[in-house]
Design goal:
Length: 266
């Protein structure tokens, strides 16, 4: 919205004053941890730079960050700039560095939102806030992403909506299936991941009983997918069999505005 910017006067190179529009910064901040696990003051800030054609893309917006399990870099989805950054930590200089000279550009106006890595193979997956598509990539040890394929998150009979749609994304512990949430339709779509090439293929879409799914997590035993429905004020659980969701709920419980889920094993 227009309330997201500020204006200021700046003298240009010709000595005249211009009105310049400024936007909030979007940063990745590096914090060191103390020996007791406490968070110390930040030692470096990596500033994202970009914008997109949609009204909410006036500046970069770092929306998610994930660590590659097979390499020493992080992937950052910038939904405001339609791009994905890969960053690594320079431990000697205590700083964040970009793996390559520029981030990976995505289709204008699609807004990359959430991402996950395959647990045992060099594959990377991301969805898009403004387009009902999930994308698969391969990566190398230097943080270079290479596109494999992309696949619609919607059944063929459904028309893609305008505006914000795809929200959360998660992957099963064995890296066989990818789960993508869609806000407008209230769907969970399941993709099968090709084990030899990393390509994805949608195999199922389930309509949820509550509105606005935002986050999902798979139980540690791999038997259930839990989904947080923000505006529906419920968390729902589905049994998993062969990666697919059961047609009916296993359980549900009321929870005010749930946005995300995580399991913690003691």
């Amino acid at each position: 919205s227009k309330e997201m910017y500020v204006t200021k006067t700046v003298k240009n190179m010709f000595g005249k004053y211009d009105i310049v529009i400024g936007h909030d910064e979007s940063n990745v901040v590096l914090f060191p941890l103390g020996e007791d696990g406490s968070i110390d003051d930040p030692v470096d800030i990596f500033k994202l730079d970009g914008s997109g054609p949609k009204s909410f893309q006036m500046s970069s917006h770092a929306h998610s960050i994930m660590k590659a399990p097979l390499a020493d870099f992080y992937a950052v989805c910038d939904k405001g700039g339609d791009q994905i950054y890969t960053l690594y930590i320079d431990y000697e200089q205590r700083g964040l560095r970009q793996c390559h000279g520029s981030p990976i550009k995505r289709e204008p106006g699609t807004a990359p939102r959430h991402c996950v890595f395959h647990p045992t193979k060099p594959y990377f997956f991301a969805n898009k806030e403004a387009k009902t598509v999930a994308s698969a990539f391969s990566y190398d040890e230097n943080g270079k992403l290479t596109g494999i394929n992309r696949c619609s998150s919607l059944p063929d009979y459904m028309t893609p909506p305008e505006g914000i749609d795809n929200t959360g994304i998660c992957i099963d512990q064995e890296g066989k299936y990818l789960y993508d949430l869609m806000k407008v339709e209230g769907l969970v779509s399941v993709f099968e991941i090709d084990k030899t090439g990393g390509a994805i293929k949608r195999i199922q879409s389930i309509k949820l009983p509550y509105d606005d799914p935002r986050g999902a997590a798979i139980s540690p035993d791999g038997k259930y997918l839990l989904v947080a429905c923000l505006k529906g004020n419920h968390v729902v659980s589905y049994a998993l069999k062969g990666g697919r969701l059961a047609e009916s709920l296993s359980a549900e419980f009321a929870c005010p505005s749930p946005g995300n889920l995580a399991f913690f094993q003691i």
